[in-house]
Amino acid sequence: MSQRRSVSGRPSGTDGSDFSYRMVVDSRYQKVAEGKSRLSALIFTQALIQILEAAILFLFTPKGEPLDRFYVSSSVICYVSLLIGELGRKRSRSTLLKLYLFGSSIAAVISVAFLIKSEKLYELIKDLSKWQTSAIKIFKVAAVLLGVVVQIFTIVVTSSLMHNMAPPKRAS
């Protein structure tokens, strides 16, 4: 069985009636694809930040001292929300993306609250001459602040993605 030759301008295997339709991709779908790509990079960045924060927590907690419940709960919430966000991104489910936004935002707020609650942070700010001995605390602050900045970008990108995934509103 031989393949039919393409006649000038017609794609192989069609009768040519859908040619102009198939060649134009709606900008909404392009925006969704771009948004999914950006969200993938942001989710990966958030995962790296969480791994960094967990490493700082576990490696530099003194022996015999318990881990802070707020910090651990923030990490667990963020890891679960990252999994939900990745599922929502891959499957284009706006309800999962909304849950991801809610969970990751709560985790960021808990991290900031933990940072503010930390009395050692105030000591560090009061006496900046001891910054060399407090390098770990500075890394914790930097990781949390970086997480908040990434969370702001994530909220913007995810909201835009959900808006573009929604069916177009018809004028009545």
TrEMBL record:
GO terms for cellular component: endoplasmic reticulum membrane
UniProt-listed Pfam families: Jagunal
Major localisation: endoplasmic reticulum
InterPro entries from the UniProt entry: Jagunal
UniProt keywords, alphabetically: Endoplasmic reticulum, Membrane, Transmembrane, Transmembrane helix
Similarity annotation: Belongs to the jagunal family.
Name of protein: Protein jagunal homolog 1-like
